[in-house]
Design goal:
mainly alpha; 5 helices
Amino acid sequence: MNACETLRLQARYNAWMNARLYAVCAPIPEADRRRDLGAFFRSVHGTLNHILLVDRLWAGRLAGRAPHFEGLDQILHEDFATLRMRQAGADADLQARVEVLRDADLERRVDYLSLMTGEARSLRVGTLLTHLFHHQTHHRGQLTVLLTRLGVDFGETDLIWMEAVH
């Protein structure tokens, strides 16, 4: 499996896992989804929001735009249904972008300003996408801890359980 195939698999897994977790979160009462449970982004809603914000941030950078956010905890959508719809759209866009990548594309550099420090940075597309998928996994891991605290069964999260792998 080459680097582009690996990124395509990660994009499919990313979309699959996000859809599954949104489906698990949908029946949770709104107050519980917003309850501060001590995570980086406080709540289930805050964590889901952060995942989408960072997806939009990196998608904009990949496209040569500099999206503006006030911070990594800026709430994009108060409404869960809208957040869910926007995440599904972001996942579909990311899959489409990764699907057409060639090896040479992974070497292209993306210049950007860090939202955290304001400093100019530069990453290869391959590194940027790898970071994005690891970032998603990191925060989905936090989300599963929050769901456990709420007594919610989120099922299997390992890539090997994704049907498209078999």
